[in-house]
Amino acid sequence: MLDFDKDSQIRLLSVARDRAKGLPIEAFDERIACIMDKHPEFDPIWAQGEMMATIPQEINGQVVNPFVHTVLHVIDDKQIADESPEFGAETHRRLLQEGLDEHESLHVIISIFADLYFSSVRRGGGQFDQIEYESRLEQVSVESVD
To answer: What are the backbone angles phi and psi of residue 64, rounded to the nearest 5°?
Structure first.
């Protein structure tokens, strides 16, 4: 599993390097490579190495941290694929049925997860609130996203 740590930074940059060179990617790292494929705008940043990949940058008019964004993608992509928690996968399916595409649906779920994670776990040192996560996911819809 990826986290927001040095080992994950090294792993992401290794996958980016192997992907850019067309080298084989290990099974778990295929998930990372797939997420990287969804964000080709990050490719030049991965090539610049650790320092650039871990700082917020303006990309396509938005400020984003490529490392954090990719880790969040991998976390939520795994949650949906494993249906753990089940309500994450249910929300993803519902948003797809409502008309969002795969990537947009992931971003909606990621934004909710990130808001809770960074406000409770990272800043406050507390526990991730699964009940609040489920509640927020139940409330989200295409209309609330627009």
So the answer is: -145, 145
Question: So where are the chain's domains?
Answer: 1-61, 83-146
Alpha-carbon gap, residue 89 to 94, rounded angstroms: 9
DSSP 26-95: -HHHHHHHHHHHH-GGGHHHHHH-HHHHTS-EEETTEEE-HHHHHHHHHHHHHHHHHTSSHHHHHHHHHH
Residue with tokens 């309500």: 87
Give per-residue pLDDT as tens, 80-137: 999 999 999 999 999 999 999 999 999 999 999 999 999 888 777 788 899 999 999 9
CA nearest to 78, candidates 111, 29, 140: 29
CA gap 83, 62 in Å, rounded: 30
Give the rounded distance of the alpha carbon of 16 from its chain centre: 15
Q: Name the residue with tokens 């928690």.
A: 85
pTM of the model: 0.91
pLDDT tens across 60-72, in order? 899 999 999 999 9
